[in-house]
Amino acid sequence: MITPRQSISWDECFMRMAHLIAERSKDPSTQAGAVIVNNKNVVVGMGYNGFPRGIESDQLPWEREGSFLDTKYAYVCHAEENAVYNANSRSTEGCVTYCTLFPCNECAKTLIQNGIKEIVYESDKYNEVDAFIASRRLLELAGIKLRQYISDTAK
């Protein structure tokens, strides 16, 4: 009798997908990705950080420092926002979001308003930054489950 091969976990699968979609980002300093999954483990949306549709990557600045209008922060849509915007005309109510970075406060509001029930994140490197402290506060008050992902290969 043939024994079935071992497969990767759903967490591993969706986080790999988040990393893959992040590679579409043209941001020279941070490539972030997010995948939204329903309760049947079906992907309903994916996104990466970048400028809004129709704006070429060389039309706006990618700088991290300087006046607000001369940095990427005034213009970039984050991965989590784009995953909601790209939700294939399906509801994200009750879904799980897998993201390569812990979401900022703006993305937290978007995820809350769109009914996300759980966030699985890999990196929390900005956890001391005010926008991410505010994000954690919002998400916890909204009752959204937060879980840091650890790769199956790292276990």
From TrEMBL:
Does the record bear Cell inner membrane in its keywords?
A: no
Give the GO terms filed under biological process for this record.
nucleotide biosynthetic process; pyrimidine nucleotide metabolic process
Top-level taxon in the UniProt lineage = Bacteria
Cite a GO CC annotation. cytoplasm
Residue spans crossing the bilayer: none
Origin species: Candidatus Magasanikbacteria bacterium GW2011_GWC2_34_16
Q: Supply the alphabetized keyword list.
A: Hydrolase, Metal-binding, Nucleotide biosynthesis, Zinc
Q: Which InterPro entries match?
A: APOBEC/CMP_deaminase_Zn-bd, CMP_dCMP_dom, Cytidine_deaminase-like, dCMP_deaminase, dCMP_deaminase-rel, Deoxycytidylate_deaminase_dom
Q: Which PANTHER family match?
A: DEOXYCYTIDYLATE DEAMINASE (PTHR11086:SF18), DEOXYCYTIDYLATE DEAMINASE-RELATED (PTHR11086)
Query: Which family, according to UniProt?
Result: Belongs to the cytidine and deoxycytidylate deaminase family.
Where would one find coiled-coil regions in this protein?
none
Cofactor names from the entry are: Zn(2+)
CMP/dCMP-type deaminase domain location, by residue?
A: 9-146
A molecular function GO annotation:
dCMP deaminase activity
Which catalytic residues are annotated? 80 (proton donor)
Protein residues bound to Zn(2+) = 78, 104, 107
What is this protein's name?
dCMP deaminase
